[in-house]
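Changelog-linked ticket: zinc ion example.
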Amino acid sequence: MTRLFLLAALFCLPAGAQAADYAVVHAGRLLAFPGEEARSDQTVIIKDGMVERVAAGFIGQDEIGASADDTVAVHDLKNMFVMPGLIDGHVHILSENNPRARLQRVEMSEADLAIAGAGFAEKTLMAGFTTVRDVGAGSSDAIFALRDGIARGDVPGPRLFASGATISVTGGHGDGTQGYTDEIAELLHSKGVCDGVGECRKAVREQVRRGADHIKLTATAGVLSNTAAGLEQQFFDDELKAIMDSAHAMGRKVTAHAHGVNGINAALRAGVDSIEHGTYLDNESIRLFKRTGAYLVPTLLAGATVVEWAEDPTSFLLPPQRAKALQVGPVMHDMAKRAHEGGVKIAFGTDTGVSKHGENAREFALLVSAGMTPMEAIRAATVAGADNLGKSDVLGSIAPGKYGDLVAVEGDPLSDVTELEDIDFVMKEGVVYKRP
Ligand SMILES: [Zn+2]
């Protein structure tokens, strides 16, 4: 006899708990592959955390082919809309912007950052994001500790891909020492700061040595750095090429933070795999995106968030930050619209850490207001998100051989995408973390 776990509505398995050998999900509607149509009355069979098969109708426990020793958990989602776990391609999971952020840089230890990150990671997972890409965690080793701790099941959180320190020029957007005294700046010196071809090669290789899954660079200035340096290109072309070539030679994808058009286009010409923000992209950028196949990660939520702060006279933005926020925020919506209409591949990313962890799904409505259909926005956070990570073999859809990462809502996100701001059910690798 098959031993049955009668899990439905009884309890959830905490992180690190032993999952059942089989998880069987009865889905009222199933969007297995966003971009293709949703189907009614489907069963997803997950074995040892990976999808084994998807079958029409509601398959009973005795029909799934489990052996006598296997444990089986059945999840009744017959009144729900089930889809792949969501992917956020741009987060900063160790921190969240707040008025004390600049002080916390000299107050928080690596251990403090790891514990804070664990809390943010749990909020992210409960919001339905089962995979995230962290694109810049300073020089902190805590990001790798958190990634590995989640993978071991020590703490609940999304599957984490980490870049380590951001590659930046001295005084550039990824050099977090602006505004501190020289003595403090020396202590805070980022492991990713480099100038010239030789240093940039070394900075990339140093991140790979530390455990980076991908490389993040700041091709242009940014909104929240405390420097009135505009928003234009910061690395020279030879430095950009050195970064791309060193990363690619070691099997790492590269993503570039870029606002100003010269920085966007220079990074694309140098062979970058994706552009974050993309605020001032032009027709030449669109041509380059399509020629190289690079993704755009528009981070509209970050734009909306910094405008909210800049318009609040009591907010904590410094004068250069406030000026740049008001300059960039309103342009980003139009940028995403032009890129989408121009046929640029778009992957979902929020820059959460600027906005609050757990609110990542607010990006969906912003993408829809920029002209994407709900289906296209969902595809950006699943199928395209997985492709952007180079992980389409195991992520992004519900199909045999992929991780058993599923989320579900009671409403229909294809008619109202804001349904995804309140995810009712979260499963990662066959383990349930949240249920209605
Ligand atoms: Zn960011």
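Closing comment: Example verified and attached. The first strand starts at residue 3 and ends at 5. The pocket of zinc ion is lined by residues 90, 92, 135-136, 351 (CB under 6 Å).
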